């Protein structure tokens, strides 16, 4: 395994929040890895811990109330959670960069696009103003912004949503990061603009060999741009597999339900298949497998213990008792 | 009774833009520009388009929530934009709306019984509070909530449950026509499927007619019978659902359909990727409004504005180039 060391390896990460109503286990024992030049998609419904996982990778969770209760995040062999502050600042923005959902909130409304991008560049690189300007232009052209010189001098509010997101991506790419974390980058955009941005991200990945951690709630978006997919539910990873494998051969009842909930143009029946019930509150997480109250295949064991992660095909792991081979041969 | 429940003809809604020291009108936002739509009784009309294309304004004008600049709307054979207050009230009872944000559309100080019961009181459909509560319980049970939740407040519910309350409230005055303005867009996928199923069941059970506004094409394809595509305040294409999705004739519709991510990546075909952004509706392009982004635009498109014409029975397109015998553009 030495030759293909993942750029990011997260082992048993636990991010908890101490709230007046108890400990909220937003990320509970999550492990995953991200190879160089790979896109890993994280899917799940709201409140399942996708964003907290990604914020943890950059150590952006505020402590307190947040708390890194355990685990390690190995970036290029170094543990981000144990890193001194100064080193962390060097890492953020230059080697790991992030794109957020709402591009307007990520840009400063009182500075021009050029100002903000120059700031990001000069923070991490020792370059002159003129060199920075040239680099900004180059970056804006990289994200296919037409008449970049003009855009550089304009303020964020004069740009459309798609353009703003392009600027944010350009800024994130400024220092050629190893990992780009994209937290629902296209959710706020229209479909035609979403297609443009996804296309752009695909091209950037190919050109720069950047690894991307892509968070979304939309399975269709994930299936288009990710190499591997990880499905999260209530702070736990329930299934992880290469994208094609997951589409063709989803195993976890939650994944199956999630795929079934999406209207499929091929089978236009009169009803959609649904998952009954609601996403549980993380404060009152069900015991055992958190999905058991909504699962149609729930057994007695599901209510008591969280199932171990089982590999059912190369690279395809699932956490469900259904796939655990019982040592005593019995299947509850 | 005629087959058409609601008919809008040549609807226009311009919003003035005020500017300068004297706040004079300096221009207009052409939010809805010459929209004609028909909704058949018991059917679902889908209205799709990108943000800012005038979907919601069209719905609001069609239901007389905001007065149109010009145009007519007939509901069940009667003029919906009538000045006769009694008639207007009678017609308005027939029409109700479900909005996108279930957090913003429920008064946090009212409990479920009051929220669902308010329309009944407003239209004098119930005699007393007891009757109101009974009817409210009946409605929320129909919408998948439980009778013991009737005295709870909105903050005690999840997003999906709140949307169920909104639907129950929309049905409280026995409407025949419900406008769902992005009613499922704010919900998680698994909850979205539950609400879509609920809307379908209610439609069959109560004989409702929907105007379903959404930007999610897969949802529209699932729930609707007819679909109209809007771009910059105009309907660019309308047809029966399968006809529109299988043989889109307008290049914008093609681009919109191709832009939607496909779940099964192996079906990837040559896509028509639209460039650029939607122009501002305060200064729409001359000629065909889509010509600035259209890959097939000719000189004529920049000069003249195409009319909405029927190229196939029931299939209307606003494009010079679209031909019935060539389903795809060459």
Biggest pleated sheet of chain B:
8 strands, mixed
CA distance, first residue to last residue of chain A: 36 Å
What is the chain-wise order of helices and strands of chain B?
EEEHEEHEHHHEHEHEEHHHEE
Q: Order of strands side by side in the largest beta sheet of chain A?
A: 6-7-8-3-9-10-12-11
Indicate the CATH topology of chain B.
Rossmann fold
The SSE string of chain A, one letter per element, is EEEHEEHEHHHHHEHEHEEHHHEE
Major sheet of chain A, described briefly?
8 strands, mixed
Shape of chain B: globular
Most extensive chain-chain interface: A-B, 43 and 38 residues
Number of strands of chain A: 12
Class from secondary-structure proportions of chain B = alpha/beta
Number of domains in the coordinates of chain B?
1
Kindly provide the radius of gyration of chain B, computed on alpha-carbon positions and rounded to a whole number of angstroms: 21 Å
Oligomer: heterodimer
CATH superfamily of chain B: P-loop containing nucleotide triphosphate hydrolases
Keywords, separated by commas or semicolons:
heterodimer, A: 332 residues, alpha/beta, eight-stranded mixed sheet, four-stranded antiparallel sheet, 12 helices, 32% helix, 23% strand, B: 330 residues, Rossmann fold, 10 helices, 12 strands, 30% helix, 24% strand, disordered C terminus
List the SSEs and their pairings.
The complex is a heterodimer of chains A (332) and B (330).
Chain A: E1 8-19, E2 22-34, E3 39-43, H1 50-57, E4 66-75, E5 78-79, H2 85-91, E6 96-99, H3 103-106, H4 113-124, H5 129-142, H6 148-152, H7 161-172, E7 179-183, H8 191-208, E8 211-216, H9 219-225, E9 228-233, E10 236-242, H10 243-248, H11 253-261, H12 300-304, E11 310-313, E12 316-318
Parallel strand pairs in A: 3-8, 3-9, 6-7, 7-8
Antiparallel strand pairs in A: 1-2, 1-4, 4-5, 9-10, 10-12, 11-12
Chain B: E1 4-19, E2 24-40, E3 44-48, H1 55-62, E4 70-75, E5 78-79, H2 85-93, E6 95-98, H3 112-122, H4 129-142, H5 159-171, E7 177-181, H6 189-206, E8 209-213, H7 217-223, E9 226-231, E10 234-240, H8 241-246, H9 251-259, H10 299-303, E11 309-312, E12 315-317
Parallel strand pairs in B: 3-8, 3-9, 6-7, 7-8
Antiparallel strand pairs in B: 1-2, 1-4, 4-5, 9-10, 10-12, 11-12
Helix pairs in contact in B: 3-4, 3-5, 4-5, 5-6
């Amino acid at each position: 395994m030495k030759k293909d060391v993942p750029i990011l390896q997260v082992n048993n990460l636990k991010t908890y929040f101490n709230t007046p109503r108890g400990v909220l286990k937003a990320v509970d024992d999550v492990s995953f890895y991200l190879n160089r030049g790979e896109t890993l998609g994280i899917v799940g419904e709201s409140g399942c811990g996708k964003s907290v996982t990604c914020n943890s990778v950059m150590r952006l969770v505020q402590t307190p109330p947040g708390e890194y209760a355990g685990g390690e995040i190995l970036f290029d062999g170094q543990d981000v959670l144990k890193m001194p502050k100064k080193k962390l600042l060097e890492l953020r923005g230059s080697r790991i960069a992030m794109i957020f959902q709402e591009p307007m909130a990520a840009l400063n409304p009182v500075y021009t696009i050029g100002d903000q991008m120059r700031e990001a560049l000069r923070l991490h690189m020792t370059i002159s103003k003129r060199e920075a300007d040239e680099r900004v232009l180059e970056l804006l052209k990289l994200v296919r912004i037409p008449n970049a010189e003009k855009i550089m001098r304009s303020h964020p509010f004069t740009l459309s949503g798609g353009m703003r997101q392009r600027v944010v991506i350009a800024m994130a790419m400024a220092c050629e990061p190893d990992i780009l974390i994209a937290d629902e980058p296209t959710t706020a955009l229209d479909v035609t603009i979403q297609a443009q941005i996804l296309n752009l991200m695909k091209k950037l990945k190919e050109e720069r060999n950047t690894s991307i951690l892509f968070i979304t709630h939309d399975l269709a978006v994930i299936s288009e741009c990710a190499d591997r997919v990880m499905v999260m539910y209530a702070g736990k990873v329930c299934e992880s597999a290469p994208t094609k494998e997951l589409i063709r051969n989803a195993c976890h009842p939650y994944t199956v339900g999630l795929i079934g909930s999406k209207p499929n143009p091929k089978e236009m029946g009169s009803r959609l298949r649904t998952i009954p019930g609601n996403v549980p509150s993380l404060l009152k997480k069900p015991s055992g497998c958190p999905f058991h109250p909504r699962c149609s295949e729930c057994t007695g064991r599901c209510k008591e213990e969280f199932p171990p992660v089982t590999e059912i095909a190369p690279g395809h792991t699932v956490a469900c008792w259904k796939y655990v081979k019982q040592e005593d041969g019995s299947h509850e | 009774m005629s087959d058409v429940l609601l008919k809008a003809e040549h609807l226009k809604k311009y919003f003035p833009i005020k500017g300068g020291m004297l706040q004079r009108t300096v221009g207009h936002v052409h939010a809805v520009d010459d929209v004609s739509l028909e909704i058949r009784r018991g059917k679902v009309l889908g209205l799709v388009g990108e943000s800012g294309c005038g979907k919601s304004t069209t719905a609001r004008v069609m239901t007389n929530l905001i007065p149109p600049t010009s145009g007519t709307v007939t509901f069940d054979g009667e003029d919906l934009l009538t000045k006769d207050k009694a008639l207007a009230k009678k017609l308005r009872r027939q029409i109700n709306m479900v909005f996108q944000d279930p957090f913003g559309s429920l008064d946090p100080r009212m409990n479920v019984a009051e929220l669902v019961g308010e329309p009944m009181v407003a239209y004098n459909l119930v005699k007393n509070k007891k009757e109101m509560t009974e009817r409210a319980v009946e409605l929320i049970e129909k919408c998948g909530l439980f009778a013991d939740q009737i005295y709870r407040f909105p903050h005690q519910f999840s997003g999906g449950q709140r949307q169920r309350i909104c639907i129950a409230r929309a049905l409280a005055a026995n409407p025949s026509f419900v406008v769902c303005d992005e009613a499922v867009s704010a919900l998680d996928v698994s909850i979205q499927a539950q609400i879509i199923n609920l809307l379908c069941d209610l439609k069959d059970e109560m004989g409702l007619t929907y105007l379903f506004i959404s930007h999610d094409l897969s949802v529209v394809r699932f729930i609707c019978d007819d679909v109209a595509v809007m771009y910059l305040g105009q309907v660019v294409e309308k047809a029966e659902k399968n006809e529109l999705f299988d043989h889109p004739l307008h290049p914008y519709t093609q681009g919109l359909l191709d832009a939607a991510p496909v779940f099964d990546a192996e079906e990837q075909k040559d896509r028509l990727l639209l460039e650029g952004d939607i122009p501002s509706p305060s200064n729409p392009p001359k000629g065909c409004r889509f010509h600035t982004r259209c890959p097939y635009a000719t000189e004529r498109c920049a000069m003249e504005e195409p009319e909405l014409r029927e190229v196939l029975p029931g299939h209307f397109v606003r494009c010079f180039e679209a031909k019935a015998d060539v389903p795809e553009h060459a």
